[in-house]
Amino acid sequence: MKREIRILGIDDMPFSFKDGNVDVVGVVMRGGTYLEGVLKTTIEVDGTDATSKIVEMIERTRHRGQIKVVMIDGVALGGFNVVDGREIYDSTGIPVITITRNRPHMEKIKQALKKHFDDWEKRWKIISRDKTSEIVMDYTVYVKNYGMELEEVKEIIKLSTIRGAIPEPIRVAHLIATGIKTGESHGRC
After folding, report:
1. Hey, what CATH class is 6-103+132-182 in?
2. What is the pLDDT of residues 51-97, one digit of tens each?
């Protein structure tokens, strides 16, 4: 694996559930060391457009031909706007990794979906259909992967993580998103 593999890291800005929309930031990085570009799109809070908006963001960037993997902070953005990693991979041909530092509590997620959404079954189907894998290195993260084997995922995470558990492309997207929204970056992804 090339050390300077181009990775698109994606995270959403802080938001309130009263907000209608939330901006999503993408950063294109070489491995975990060199920032090449910043992208932005807007999705509905608790909507259903995160997947299509990410595909559009990928397709319209001048970095499109260089991106070798997409990393997303979790399986949903903007609340429960569920990201379909399989659909992004099928649409773009670029492998996708969703990553979180905390083990997903699937039953709690399902109950929250049932409580708040008429289309909860559709959202639940996307969230639950693919295996969540635990990756233990100096830290533990939980991933879903599309278009690449788990060993490649481990290698990319190791390559792009400088300090802590979250790869730099996601961490930098989080810092930029938080800084733009609140005036100063802070917090953990």
Report:
1. alpha beta
2. 999 999 999 999 999 999 999 999 999 999 999 999 999 999 999 99
What residue type is assigned to position 60 of the chain?
R
What was the pLDDT predicted at 148? 97
Calpha distance 184→186 (Å, rounded): 7
Q: Give the pLDDT confidence of 124-144 residue by residue, as tens digits.
A: 999 999 999 999 988 999 999
| Residue written as token pair 């939980």 | 142
Say whether pLDDT at 32 is over 90.
no
How do the domains of the chain map onto residue ranges? Answer: 6-103+132-182
